[in-house]
From TrEMBL, chains A, B:
InterPro entries: IolE/XylAMocC-like (IPR050312), Xyl_isomerase-like_sf (IPR036237), Xyl_isomerase-like_TIM-brl (IPR013022). The keyword Isomerase applies. Coiled coil: none annotated. Residues 23-259 form the Xylose isomerase-like TIM barrel domain. It comes from the Bacteria. This is Sugar phosphate isomerase/epimerase family protein. The lineage of its organism: Bacteria, Bacillati, Actinomycetota, Actinomycetes, Kitasatosporales. GO terms for molecular function: isomerase activity. Keywords: Isomerase.
């Protein structure tokens, strides 16, 4: 894929401080970054915004809003929208939340999620922020995200205008699903692909299954086929590489950034 | 659920030697066991068969055949069928296999699996053994089983007579899937539910994600709803409890067996 589509998600090289990350992106000609709320908050939202803006980088997404099945979701998500505005991105990625005492099963959790997104959409719309519901792999259904398939994400998104609520297509979460290609096509036709993220699938999975997302080319996903699929569906925006991986985090961040860029160009 | 439906899969209490397991099943009035090939082979197939037969226990399934994407599958699966006959069960559970150099993607793997089952069916039929394709959770799609949903399992099973090829419905693997209830109904209407297994879903998942299946009642699955669903679909056979769980294996086997029985009766 071409360099001009590349965006590196901050979590891929979380060992790099934001100024370092930005400087190396500029040096390597990387045009975009995806940011995470916690490290950006730690650095200072305004300061981070200046840093990225002065470097001429695009902020492709802010990750993440969501967790709608927990108390306090509304205040937290409004804050996320405010932060997205300050950082200059138009897209907030939503990890919707899992089962909680208030939503003890998947049906009630998804109903709650749809309802919450409905309540959040006007505020997001007023601020020019698109919400991108991210289906997470079914192994996270109970504790992180009751939205497991792109069909389920679309079923919620379709209740709202496409420029307000769309989806995040992440290969790591969707690669196994034989129904995902048709859903990608449908999402694209509706203009609802608001973010496209790449990560590869490798095994064995680590304990907790959070930090084992494979470097591009290390796993079994046909990333080129996914890129073609998403492109054919009409998506021509940035392609974020978002890897949560203890082994990558233990390495030199600049080396991992350069490797990730090489792997991206080779897809 | 009633005691007369209960079957304990040998792996749930793998710390118990077969004679111990059988003796405690008899003492507790447990009418059936599901057996695994490796420990039964170690004990001796004929000896295991006598032991179970003399105790008056039903062998509800033999686990497992499959791994059709690897070399040597045919010989291995014929042996599994022979062992099933000797042990006196009519059902061989199939874990179909994941990605291999010969089947590097899910589509080719599932095509290979369907083809292999077609080649195996005559031999199984001649020996009175039903094949029960088990969809495994998508987190196993790459390394253990490219058949991830009940729909996919049925799509293969439906190419063959229902009394020869059916499916295994296991709550642990299917609970997350909003399409599974309709598939259970379809499988039941066709007489293709050849095995029904219970395990609960608990997090965090352990490294490798193999041995974290929750004791009944410890997790988030509405097991009663699943039992009702399968029953409404027309299945009235044995209900196996199959737990792979390092914590349960570290405990006294008899205590775990008694606890599992209690939990089953409470569902």
């Amino acid at each position: 894929m071409n360099l001009d589509r590349f965006s590196v998600n901050q979590m891929t090289v979380k060992q790099l401080a934001l100024p370092e990350l930005i400087a190396h992106c500029v040096r390597l000609g990387i045009p975009g970054v995806g940011l995470w709320r916690a490290p950006v908050q730690e650095y200072g939202i305004e300061a981070a915004a200046s840093l990225v803006r002065d470097a001429g980088l695009a902020v492709t997404t802010l990750c993440r809003g969501g967790f709608f099945t927990s108390d306090g979701w509304e205040e937290d998500n409004r804050a996320a929208i405010d932060e997205a505005v300050t950082l200059g991105t138009d897209t907030l990625v939503l990890v919707s939340g899992g089962l909680t005492p208030a939503c003890p099963d998947l049906l009630s959790a998804r109903a709650r999620i749809a309802e919450a997104i409905g309540e959040l959409t006007p505020y997001a719309g007023e601020h020019g922020i698109r919400l991108a519901i991210e289906p997470l792999h079914p192994m996270y259904a109970s504790d992180r995200c009751a939205v497991s398939t792109l069909d389920q994400a679309l079923e919620i998104a379709e209740r709202f205008p496409a420029d307000q609520v769309g989806v995040t297509v992440d290969t790591y979460h969707l690669w196994w699903d034989d129904r995902a290609p048709a859903a990608v096509e449908r999402a694209g036709a509706q203009g609802r692909i608001h973010s496209f993220q790449l990560a590869d699938w490798t095994t064995p999975l680590p304990a907790g299954v959070l930090n084992g997302r494979g470097q591009l080319g290390e796993g079994c996903i046909d990333l080129r086929a996914w890129a073609d699929l998403v492109e054919k569906a009409g998506y021509t925006g940035p392609v974020e590489v978002e890897l949560f991986n203890d082994e990558l985090w233990a390495r030199d961040g600049v080396e991992v950034l350069e490797e990730t860029l090489e792997r991206f160009l080779a897809v």
